[in-house]
Amino acid sequence: MAKFKYLKPNTLQEALDLLKGNESDKKVISGGTDIMVQLRNYKIDPDIIIEISEIESIKGIDKKDGFITIGAAATLTEITESDIVKRYCPMLAKAAASVGATQIRNRGTIGGNVCNASPAADTVPALVALGAVATVASVEQERKVPLEELYVGVGRTAIGSNELITYISIPQPAENSAGSFFKLGKRKAQAISIVNGAVYIGVNAAERKFTDVHVVMGSVAPTVLRIREAEESLIGKSINRQNIENAAEIVRSKINPISDVRATAEYRKDVSGNLFIQAMSDSLEQLGVDVSIEGI
Ligand SMILES: Cc1cc2nc3c(=O)[nH]c(=O)nc-3n(C[C@H](O)[C@H](O)[C@H](O)COP(=O)(O)OP(=O)(O)OC[C@H]3O[C@@H](n4cnc5c(N)ncnc54)[C@H](O)[C@@H]3O)c2cc1C
User: Fold this and answer.
1) Which of 16, 31, 169, 238 has its CA 20 to 30 A from that of 8?
2) What is the pLDDT of residues 268-294, one digit of tens each?
3) Is ligand 1 within 6 A of the CB of residue 26?
4) Looking at residue 211, which CATH number applies to its domain?
5) Residue owning the nearest CA to atom 17 of ligand 1
6) In angstroms, rounded to a whole number, what is the distance separating the alpha carbons of residues 82 and 102?
């Protein structure tokens, strides 16, 4: 590992002051579970490392004014165990619980998972499906970026080198809505996703119609993908097996996976549709919509 200067600011303002200016190559470290691997493998070679994991104002999980807010330095374990997250966004708790193993979740943060910009990052599809927005701060300004618009490529985000994500807000899900996160890996723990994704649905149970649908896939393209054509094929339509299977076909046709050591592109395409159908079925079940009538 190359030498670097290590700084540990106590406050957000101190961290932002340290990030100001371009005179040296600076890198933020939170839990370090991604960045330490990159440093060890000489993939990055910063002059200065700025640790943010213990800045109180960017930790914690709260609910107010119709939003669930999660500090960027909240760990994946804290998210998995949070009563607020489990109650209002259970699919995010499930996504966080699926990351790595206990040691990784105890150190790894949501800010790190989001900013590392891996196409296989597990919390990202759930956050996009839930309509999450990142608050991004620098000494000059604070701005809001929908997670869906944060990614520009593999390992690349729209966050500037002098900026930090401070927290992530999720609008409180509507009544009669539910969601489901799914992940296919080679084994249960420590497995990077072959395919992951999330669906969020709103329904009019009395009329058996979809009122809202978000379909998000990960590990099947350079960045997380929201599949609007599949969403549009369902919104306002009847809840039945045929409509869901048609949407699954759209999911398969709209993703552009690669073949790699974990799976072939063909396998990823096929399994994505099946996982989508399962997630829709799980979500409908949570809402008490009797999917068995329709034979799902
Ligand atoms: C053995 C192992 C297994 C893993 N398994 C999984 C898995 O199953 N699923 C999965 O999704 N990931 C997995 N990971 C990856 C990693 O653990 C997660 O992405 C984790 O959430 C990263 O968080 P961190 O706090 O450790 O990030 P760090 O390593 O501290 O940072 C990651 C990147 O984000 C930037 N960053 C961090 N916080 C901020 C912020 N607030 N604002 C701006 N930039 C920021 C850093 O500069 C760096 O570029 C695994 C890693 C290992 C080593």
Assistant:
1) 169
2) 888 999 999 999 999 999 999 976 644
3) no
4) 3.30.390.50
5) 33
6) 16
